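DM from R.C. (forwarded with permission)

"hey, sorry to bug you on a friday — could you get me a structure for this? deadline for the figure draft is monday and I only need the backbone to look sensible"
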Amino acid sequence: MTGKQKKTLYRILLSGVLFALGLLLPLEGIGRLCILLAAYAVIGWDVLWRAARNIVNGQVFDENFLMALATVGAFFTGEYPEAVAVMLFYQIGELFQSVAVGRSRRSIAALMDIRPDYANIEENGVLRQVDPEEVAVGDTIVIKAGERVPLDGVVLEGTSSLDTAALTGESLPRSVAPGDGVVSGCVNQSGLLRVRTTKVYGESTVARILDLVENASSKKAKVENFITRFARYYTPVVVVAAVLLVVLSPLLTPVSWPEGIHRALIFLVISCPCALVISVPLSFFGGIGGESKIGVLVKGSSYLEALADTEVVVFDKTGTLTKGVFRVTAIHPQGVGEAELLELGALAESYSEHPISHSLRRAWGKEPDAARLGAVEELSGRGVRAVVDGRTVLAGNRKLMAESGIPCEDCERIGTIVHLAVDGAYAGHIVISDEVKPDAGEAIAALRAGGVKKTVMLTGDAKEVGEAVAKELGLDEVHSQLLPGDKVAQVERLLGETSRKGKLAFVGDGINDAPVLSRADVGIAMGGLGSDAAIEAADVVLMDDAIGKLPAAIAIARRTLAIARQNIVFALAVKGAVLLLGAFGMANMWEAVFADVGVSVIAILNAMRALKVQG
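My reply, with the result:
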């Protein structure tokens, strides 16, 4: 418990003792009143103070006003024990709520703990601790065993294992060696590392994640916005209804004025909207916390709600359903040797950061000589045009060859085909293959079992490659040889086919899929660990490459939304029934306490289920 929670508990215990003494001691009149007033003052002074302060500030109709009006009114009508009991149980409910919120907050605390306290800068052989914000790009920092990585960078010296659990939810450490990239927020488990920083703190992975977590509550779900609007109008309405009950009951029925006031006070206690105002946001907060436990970052409850309503899931192929680790599996030259064809492809693609380009350079095994390269032009969705040793080399797909009027051969092998032409003459093709992720098939099956109606894959790869992957995974649709603009068009078509209540989620790597991620109802980025574009463009980030986490993320979102709706129905049903009973004099103050505090506690307990993550 926090210090504030402990003080509230002590006040509850002290007030409870005074309340028991007021009921059990053989006191009458002023003596009994004084003890019960003391019990009320101990437990209710803060509610009275907040109510008065809010009235002065023009915020009259809130739960503090309702509780103050009902309990003070009960004192004036001689119902001393009832007044103390209402305030006592109200504070018990508030304490319970505070503890519940604290528990939900701790579920996200692991993310907040990734904030680095310092960075070690080496000066003249001596380490000096500085604020991470003082470190510039290109500086060398030293990370000792047990310390948290403060900034993104590249390992210069040392080998170690990094604990990435706070970012990815995975318990297995990741090994790093010189040349490997490291991201802020991880914990260095073993060896000493010297790292050259590649980003300032404000642009680092940890800073971006913390900013998203701290601002997640600003993106409210429709259910939360409904409750906010509902409470804004609900409270004034019930106060007016209570006043009418006082005035009309004695005029239209044989009820006395004191009885009319008594009924109105009961009405006010029942009407307090705590169960709705607290439990619904708490449900979403718990759901976001539950997602963080499995390494899924949701940027706000509105995205959690959209994820829960997902009917169609659209996937990018490379790096999402496949490993994105390409390797050259065949070389088919025409008029040149195999080695020369591979060399031309590697040189032409040497400036590109596409995975296919990396695979060509790895297969060639040499460092490109910049002197051999002239002008290089990347052709979106088709390939590159480059000048190599004074010759114009085209390297790309069949579309690029067709645009240039160069006939090319078909290839029966499954994979990405890179066709090459030199000075307008076809020179052959290179086959590059990618592996399907081992958990991709299970993830697709789990999505279908979980209620997703359609799974679709969009890829820029050849038709044969796309169809082979789709068949292996059991996808409903596949669309191949797409440019980035074509992917957006396909998503818009699918959005038009999705039902009014359903949502479409697009899952991509967040680097070259930003337009599609933004166009979908829910953009989900794969491989968010260290990917700026993923964190920026997506609404939901899977903090590693485990596509198998997607069904669990949707299941948590659906359970969260179901819990929030359960709380709304339950609270409104119970309060509506007891309000009617109270208006007709068939409910006493104790039943009113249950309709307020009891319903709140039950709703909060239900909301806490959103934190539970199935293994």
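R.C.: lifesaver. The CA atoms of residues 89 and 597 lie 6 Å apart.
me: no worries. The first strand starts at residue 119 and ends at 123.
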